[in-house]
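Researcher: Here's the sequence for the chain we discussed earlier.
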Amino acid sequence: MCGSESQVLTRARLPAGSPLPTQVEDLHDENSVLRKRAGLGATDAVDLQGVRMQKQASIAQLRSLNALLERQVRDGGKGKQGMHAGILDEWVHRRQCACVLEHAHQSILAWQEA
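Model: Thanks. This is the structure I predict for it:
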């Protein structure tokens, strides 16, 4: 099934007036542009195993750091507030990175399923 056939089938399944056909077309166009930039054909497969492994490693690292920080906060003593503030800032930064990685992973999975 070619891209235009799948777009027609997608439109047929959606309610009239839905914004989804436009969004699907935008995603399809963006996909085409990105594939051309990457030098890939319309049907070439993309190996995402390295991306997944890197994401899993980053998540494991962040979980380890999270456990360490929680332990340090729980065991923290007097006079260490400055150190804990720095650790907390680092933890917040890494949690934000984890959220970005998770969002990227979900986008890649959605792209693969499309």
